[in-house]
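FAQ: What does the model actually see?

It sees only this:
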Amino acid sequence: MTNQKPLTHDELRQFTGDLDRYRHWVARSVIYTPGIKHVAEQAGAYWLIDELAFAISGNPVQHAGRADPRILELHFWRLDTKDGSAILTARADSDVEPFYCKEIPYTDFPLDWIDIWAAFDGEHWTLYLPSEH
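And it is asked to produce this:
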């Protein structure tokens, strides 16, 4: 049993960016911010970082980037949860269809949704919360 308080959207908006970064344990070209680390720790959601890191460093992002080069610089992830399951999507922009969609059959993720942005700096993909932009 945990004594941690529930994760909230208001709490996540408090992350406004800093210079600390954490490297993904397998996909070494993927790093993430303290806000993303906080989500993973508070929600038990390191699996979410893994899902994004494996898609970014693997074929899904590279393949989609051939059709839309914006994806190879910046793209937007969203996890929507409902009734204990979720859908993870990624888009090049808000007005286009997702280039990635994965059903998560079971999750206890505590928020009904979360947005995570991914930006490439020429060497690393950085995962961050919109408030950290």
